[in-house]
């Protein structure tokens, strides 16, 4: 895999997530109780520390208020921070994810994540290794961002050790089945158990690179199937997950399940 990062331009970002470029909060916000944190300022600060903008997301809405000021997500990767594969290439990249809004609906939120180049599917995780935080708009300043990013970079190296453990752990058939069963519980209602055909379907690899039976490869094929949908679930075709916040919650749950197999 190439070490290059596929960054996106600010013009492209504006097309995909216009709320990023708000220069003031929504008109109804009481600015005495709210400090406006421009997302463009966050992007500039991240760029100054070497982090490149790689992806933006914003939920579609017909409301002009939501379109111009609503919840949006920006993701960053650093060209010099990556997890090597067995051949010395890039297996995965940590990323920093920022969730912001300018309409008062959500506090500013930072998460640490991982972007695996083999599958090109984003993953946001909340673990002891990475962590994250939420901050009300009355407290956060751009000056504090540099310190926070420096702290995140210092602990990202721990993730290399975590993924190494996953890559070294060969999963038995019973373990793979248990992993899939626990993962499916994140998508099905709590009043029923996963069916055998559902378990087998989400364990099916979509690509040659994920056919191995390590914990790392099992995690990735289950993750991709659950997010992209298309498998049979409760006798109907499972939908793809397109809502960015739903995507985040699912990925956090999957990471915690995978980590339990090496920390138990």
If you had to describe this structure to a student in words, what would you say it looks like?
The protein contains eight helices and nine strands. The protein has 264 residues and is α+β, with helices and mostly antiparallel strands. It has two domains: 155 residues, no CATH class; 91 residues, no CATH class. The strands form two sheets. Strands 1, 2, 3, 4, 5, 6 and 7 form a seven-stranded antiparallel sheet that branches. The longest helix has 27 residues. It is globular and about 55 Å long. About 2% of the residues have low confidence.
Index terms:
264 residues; alpha+beta; 39% helix
Sequence-ordered SSE layout with sheet pairings:
Elements: H1 10-16, H2 39-48, E1 52-58, H3 64-69, E2 72-77, E3 83-84, E4 90-100, E5 108-116, E6 121-125, E7 132-135, H4 142-168, H5 173-184, H6 196-203, H7 215-228, E8 232-233, E9 236-237, H8 244-263
Antiparallel strand pairs: 1-2, 2-4, 3-4, 4-5, 5-6, 5-7, 8-9
Helix pairs in contact: 2-4, 5-6, 5-7, 7-8
Write a concise synopsis of the structure shown:
With 264 residues, the chain is α+β, with helices and mostly antiparallel strands.
Mean pLDDT value: 81
**Tertiary shape:** globular
| Unreliable runs | 125-129
Tell me the number of helical segments per DSSP (H or I, 4 or more residues long): 8
State the domain count.
Answer: 2
- Label the structural class: alpha+beta
Strand content: 15-25%
**C-alpha Rg, in Å?**
19 Å
Report the span from N to C terminus: 32 Å
- Summarize the amount of helix as a percent range: 25-40%
Output the helix-strand order: HHEHEEEEEEHHHHEEH
- Oligomer state equals single chain
Quick one: how many beta strands? 9
Largest sheet properties: 7 strands, antiparallel
């Amino acid at each position: 895999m190439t070490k290059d990062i596929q960054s996106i331009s600010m013009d492209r970002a504006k097309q995909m997530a216009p709320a990023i470029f708000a220069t003031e909060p929504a008109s109804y916000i009481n600015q005495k109780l709210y400090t406006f944190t421009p997302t463009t300022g966050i992007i500039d600060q991240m760029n100054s520390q070497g982090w490149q903008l790689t992806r933006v997301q914003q939920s579609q809405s017909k409301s002009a208020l939501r379109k111009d000021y609503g919840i949006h997500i920006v993701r960053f990767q650093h060209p010099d921070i990556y997890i090597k594969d067995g051949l010395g290439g890039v297996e995965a990249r940590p990323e920093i994810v920022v969730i912001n809004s300018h309409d008062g609906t959500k506090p500013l939120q930072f998460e640490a994540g991982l972007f695996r180049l083999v599958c090109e599917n984003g993953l946001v995780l909340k673990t002891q290794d990475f962590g994250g935080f939420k901050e009300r708009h009355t407290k956060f300043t751009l000056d504090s961002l540099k310190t926070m990013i420096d702290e995140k970079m210092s602990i990202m190296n721990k993730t290399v050790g975590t993924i190494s453990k996953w890559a070294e752990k060969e999963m038995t058939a019973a373990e793979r089945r248990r992993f899939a069963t626990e993962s499916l519980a994140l998508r099905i209602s709590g009043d029923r158990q996963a069916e055998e055909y559902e378990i087998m379907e989400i364990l099916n690899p979509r690509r040659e690179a994920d056919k191995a039976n390590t914990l790392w490869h099992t995690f990735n094929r289950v993750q991709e199937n659950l997010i992209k949908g298309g498998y049979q679930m409760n006798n109907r075709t499972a939908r793809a997950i397109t809502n960015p916040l739903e995507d985040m919650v699912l990925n956090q749950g999957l990471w915690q399940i995978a980590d339990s197999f090496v920390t138990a």
